[in-house]
Design goal:
The complex is a heterodimer. By secondary structure, chain A is an alpha+beta fold. Chain A has eight helices and seven strands. In chain A, α3 crosses α4. Classes of the chains: A alpha+beta, B mainly alpha. Chain A: Keywords: Cell membrane, Glycoprotein, Membrane, Phosphoprotein, Signal, Transmembrane, Transmembrane helix.
């Protein structure tokens, strides 16, 4: 009886060793970086965590195929390293000693990736299934890009400023015209001092214009 | 009745206008590069010598001419000698070219500013590819900040020949930039005078904030040590001295006519000698200050990249050899590498091509200048800071202030001669003339919003102003010293500010500065002749980096036109005046 038990156990062990080994068919490598993810709060990877992992994979398979046949014992782990990385396969209990096709496992994991990550307090980057690419979440894009809104605000302010300045300039110009016509009406009554036909005020305001002929003669005068 | 010339409200507005114009993007993105290339702290020696030999004298000369003649560049040079009206016209043409392409930088600054109001910053991460399994291919090959600049901002084409279409986002930003400039110059000195208070002082506030932030960043000290260790052997390299002279020359904005325009709105008794010294000293101090900030940012970025590189190598080794996490650190990396090479030679050999040699010096050595520094390096550093949105907004707002300050000077250089000429000023009010100039520049500036626009921008940036300005300033100095006469100029200065220029100014004006400019001119010409064909850097999307290409024929023709358009004005102006005088003399003689 004992010998039979030992025999079956060894056969199962050998079978398992056959099924789960690096680069086996339908096997996946998992790499976990606990210290990177959690820093000081990192937990150690031990047999309990492995049990949880097996449970999560079994859960994923059950949810995906919705037949409650996958057991925790169907998930085989092997080659656990210090990194922490290991390989796993999911065996099919209905057909003996075969593994569930990789595509099914992949689809199941993909579907439940979020739940698996959260069970270990990790993320897609720190709990890596090496052959299963994760769909990256797209960035949240608002309906109108933010920059257009800011652009619109600034544009309105600037245009308002320009319009204000132009309008006030036109108003000032009109007032000046009105004032000057009033002054002209006044001037017709008052005599304006003229010098060669130019009103004296204009002469005062004209900026100095350098007459080249006279400027050159500066040298001839004795300096004081 | 003639209107009196508008004046600055007080001398402070004038000084601020000059500072705002002179302190521009070149102080931030060109000087730190030169410092790095030509000997670190040692570069300050040729820089300061050139400031004294060429910067201060030429600045004083231009301000004095403008203040004395009280006209824009065309009018001022016509008064000095009627044959020199071409110099003024050349200045206006160069200013026109400059304002065409310079405002595109403000458009880019606006673009980045508007995009800074997001979390996370859009250049912090790569966008996802179409089936969401990874990042965009082009972004993977280069970095996310470079991708944002080359693809999402410029949408750059692979070469100059493929022009592509106008990028509407950039066109919108360019229109906004021109509207802002129009708002500031609308009323002439009345509006410009108020705006320069802001554009001159705000960049300093931001620089101080960045200095404090930059010095407290992790790894900033590496950058500062790298910058300030003088490599005195670079002083023997003639290129060092030439770069120092060129930088002083272009940084002060001499020869564009802007300084003459600004000074023409001064009271005749304004002490422009003191102001010239103040402005040139502030300009150089700002350059040094900005390079301290830039190098602390460099140090931070280089340290960050170095540490990421080390972490990547560690991760690679951990994954390949399934070692425990934390067993490999930056300190024991080298020993562990040797150990692994000895224990697993085959696997290590397979892995060897992927293992990069991370070096802090290599990261610090990547010297960048121009738009690459301002928009790529800085945004890369900003995305790694805490509260990046705040620093991003501050930084791009500062770039905007610097750019708009310089644009005010450029447009003043174009508008002052136009408003001085009675033919135009009597028919159109000031607002219409400014509006027309802004509108024409905006429409032509749309060329720079094409997909190949950045290549055209580089053409304008490198060739539109360099040779022409040297020639213009050379003619200006010779004209004032030898045609107008240095004694007459002395007397004018005595009338204006009450003191005669001492021997330092006279020697610099008469001998040193012209000689320096002639040597710069000869250097540039020989450099061009020796290199033969001109080349440019084009962005290759497939490789994710810049590649060198030759300019096509029509681009070379445009370069030639740019240089010729401004330099030919000088002899043409003299010729036209000569012909006019001849005709007048003939007419008078036939009448008599």
């Amino acid at each position: 009886m004992l010998r039979a038990l030992l025999l079956t156990l060894s056969i199962v062990a050998i079978a398992h060793a056959e099924l789960c080994k690096p680069d086996a068919q339908n096997a996946f490598k998992v790499r976990i970086s606990i210290k990177t993810a959690l820093g000081d709060n990192a937990y150690a990877w031990d047999a309990n965590e492995e049990y949880l992992f097996k449970a999560m994979v079994a859960f994923a398979m059950r949810r995906y195929s919705s037949k409650s046949t996958t057991q925790i014992s169907n998930v085989l782990l092997c080659n656990v390293t210090d990194r922490v990385s290991f390989w796993f396969v999911v065996t099919d209990s209905s057909k003996n000693v075969t593994t569930v096709p990789g595509s099914e496992v992949e689809a199941a994991i993909r579907m439940n990736r979020n739940r698996i990550n959260n069970a270990f307090l990790l993320s897609d980057k720190t709990l890596q299934f090496l052959k299963i690419t994760s769909t990256l979440s797209p960035p949240v894009e608002p309906s109108t890009p933010v920059w257009l809104i800011v652009f619109g605000v600034v544009l309105c302010l600037i245009v308002a400023g320009i319009v204000f300045l132009i309008v006030s300039g036109i108003q000032k110009h009109k007032k000046k015209n009105k004032d000057s016509t009033e002054r002209e009406n006044l001037e017709e009554k008052v005599e304006v001092t003229l010098e060669n036909g130019i009103p004296c005020e204009a002469l005062d305001l004209k900026p100095g214009h350098i007459n080249g002929v006279f400027a050159a003669d500066d040298e001839r005068f004795t300096s004081l | 009745m003639e209107k009196s010339r508008p004046l600055w409200d007080n001398p402070l507005q004038f000084v601020f206008a000059c500072i705002s114009y002179a302190v521009g993007l070149g102080n931030v993105w060109r000087f730190p590069y030169l410092c790095q290339m030509y000997g670190g702290g040692g570069f300050l020696i040729p820089y300061l010598i050139m400031l004294i030999a060429e910067g201060m004298p030429l600045l004083y000369l231009e301000l004095a001419v403008g203040q004395r003649m009280r006209q824009g560049s065309i009018g001022a040079w016509k008064i000095i000698s009627p044959y020199l009206c071409g110099v003024g016209v050349a200045s206006v043409v160069v200013s026109f070219f400059l304002s065409m392409y310079y405002n595109v930088i403000n458009a880019w600054a606006f673009w980045y500013l508007f995009h800074s109001f997001q979390d996370p910053l859009p250049w912090a991460t790569c966008p996802l590819n179409s089936n969401r399994t990874g990042y965009e291919e082009e972004c993977e090959k280069t970095s996310s900040t470079q991708y944002f600049w080359y693809r999402q901002t410029l949408n750059i084409s692979p070469s100059l020949e493929t022009s592509g279409s106008v990028q509407w986002e950039q066109a919108l930003c360019l229109t906004l930039a021109w509207l802002v400039v129009y708002l500031c110059i609308l009323r002439g000195t009345a509006s410009t005078g108020k705006v320069v208070y802001v554009t001159a002082s705000l960049p300093y506030c931001v620089l101080i904030i960045y200095l404090i932030r930059g010095l407290t960043l992790h790894g900033a000290v590496n950058g500062l040590i790298y910058m300030f260790t003088p490599k005195l052997e670079q002083l023997l390299n003639p290129k060092t001295w030439i770069s120092a002279a060129t930088q002083i020359f272009f940084s002060l904005g001499l020869g564009f006519g802007s300084l003459i325009a600004f000074a023409s709105y001064n009271e005749p008794s304004n002490n422009c000698q003191r102001h010239a010294i103040i402005v040139s000293l502030i300009n150089s101090t700002t350059s040094i200050f900005a390079s301290i900030v830039t190098f602390s940012i460099y140090g931070f970025k280089a340290t960050f990249n170095y540490e990421s590189c080390i972490n990547k190598v560690i991760l690679l080794l951990l994954n390949a050899f399934d070692l425990e996490e934390g067993s490999l650190t930056a300190d024991n990396l080298n020993e562990m590498k040797d150990y692994l090479m000895a224990t697993y030679p085959q696997e290590y050999a397979q892995l060897a091509p992927q293992i990069k040699n991370c070096s802090l010096e290599a990261e610090l050595d990547t010297a960048v200048q121009g738009t690459g520094l301002a928009f790529i390096v800085y945004s890369e550093a900003i995305k790694n800071m805490e509260v990046p949105q705040l620093y991003s907004v501050l930084y791009f707002f500062m770039l905007l202030m610097l750019g708009i300050g310089s644009m005010l000077g450029n447009t003043a250089a174009i508008l002052t001669p136009l408003t001085d000429s009675r033919a135009i000023a009597s028919r159109f009010p000031k607002e219409v003339i400014s509006g027309a100039v802004c509108f024409i520049n905006c429409v032509i500036g749309l060329i720079f919003t094409l997909e190949a626009g950045n290549y055209w921008f580089d053409i304008f940036n490198d060739y539109a102003a360099t040779l022409s300005l040297l020639l213009i300033v050379l003619v200006e100095t010779i004209a004032v010293c030898y045609i107008y006469g240095i004694r007459r100029f002395e007397k004018d200065l005595y009338t204006m500010i009450g003191q005669k220029p001492n021997w330092y100014w006279k020697i610099m004006w008469a001998f040193v500065s012209p000689l320096l400019i002639i040597s710069l001119f000869i250097f540039y010409l020989t450099d061009y002749i020796l290199t033969g064909t001109l080349q440019y850097q084009a962005w290759d999307a497939t490789q994710g980096q810049l590649v060198t290409k030759d300019y096509p024929g029509y681009a070379l023709a445009v370069i030639g036109l740019l240089v010729a358009a401004s330099t030919m004005c000088i002899p043409l102006g003299a010729l036209v005046t000569f012909i006019r005088k001849r005709l007048k003399r003939e007419r008078v003689s036939t009448v008599a």
